[in-house]
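Checklist before submission:
- one chain only
- standard amino acids only
- sequence pasted in full

Submission:
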Amino acid sequence: MFSHIFVGVTDFDRALAFYQPLMAALGVAQRFVDPSRPWAGWQSRPDPRPLFLIGIPFEGAHAPGNGQMTAFAARSRAQVDAVHAAALAHGGHCDGPPGLRPQYHAHYYGAYFRDPDGNKLCVACHVPGDA
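Returned file contents:
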């Protein structure tokens, strides 16, 4: 369904220091980093798409969008916990701690946080128990 998702940032080095450990906790490999542009991307596996990208917007100034959120899929509840912890350890702000959210569905286990630029992010596991 998606080719890529691009999240704008204001300070590329700060954002890279936030997203590299976050994506490592998700087990997603970095595809490229180009500080001269500046932007970076991580690649899904086994397919090359979708890509997750961060960078300074082409239009210049960045402001986080109200009602916009990027949600990452986790393989387990433990991975949700680890990603949330990595986000907070690298400059993120908690917007909802890890836990079950049965209002979405019986097995939804997710956490919400914002990156250092205020972009809202989520990591969620949709499988039962401690899968």
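Reviewer check: The chain has one domain: 4-56+69-125.
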